[in-house]
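quick one before i forget lol
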Amino acid sequence: MKAHRICSILLSRLMILSLMMAWGCRSDQNGFSNTPEGLTYKFHEQHKEGIGVLQGDMVTANVVFRTDDTVFFVSSRDLTVPYQFEILEPRFPGDIYDAFLLMAVGDSATFILDGDSLFMLDFEIQEPPEFIGNQTKVYMDVKLVDVMPREAFNREKVAYEERVDQMKTNLMEREKADIQSYLEQHNIGTKPTKSGLYFIELQHGSGPAVKPGNTVRVDYSAMFINGEIFETTKRDIAMKYDIFDSLMRYQPFEYVQGDTLTIRGWEEGLSYMNQGGRALLLVPSALAYGPKGVEGYIPSYAPLVYDVEVLEVK
């Protein structure tokens, strides 16, 4: 469980009350037992004949974390979409993993955990939130839905990784084919640089060369390999290709060469240019946004083309 998953769901006071009633749990310790490790627990429903949990298993469970007066994590808002995660080696005696190791499929229980240790060791947050004090106890309400044994989980994990690797291979092969097709369609005979960048000079500039430390002002249009423009500094281009955004300030882009704030292909391509020059930069994904891309904006393994004009070098 990572911090952003734990702290991302805040519920209204009405939701808190309804959840508390739904689980039927109390914040006192009546009816609770303790393990030798110091874990305090109470089962509401127990299936001793059910499949138990072992370290390394993948469990599927409905989980609620709360203090005496605050619900701060729910696996899903209506508790119909269980949360799935791997049972790791306990980080401290009586932690959440120790708790799950007591359970079997079908069980529901409440565990009382130390708030400081939970946040700092299990959730890996250096400073617990304000509502977690030195002695704050956290109640973890759990309904264990399913357990995938470690061996089956590992098999599925390996199969998933193989599928991902194959997908990456396919995307990389498609990228090579797309780049080659672009070069052929535009009759470009330029050879790539050592890094794989294609620098196609359209107009040589007679002004100062772009060097590390220079402040450079440029106009550019960025497009995918199919010619679709997705970003530009020029208003008329944005209007022409129907990507105009009234919130954008259409003006030259200014950056410092060598500050590494731009993509590697851009830095390299501009290093071959002078003030007044214009060029096409065909940038393979390895020099752009790589296998991750930019979510919702630039796909994985996407080669990009930049039409760049250097306006000023200072």
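fyi Residues 1-28 have pLDDT under 50 and may be disordered.
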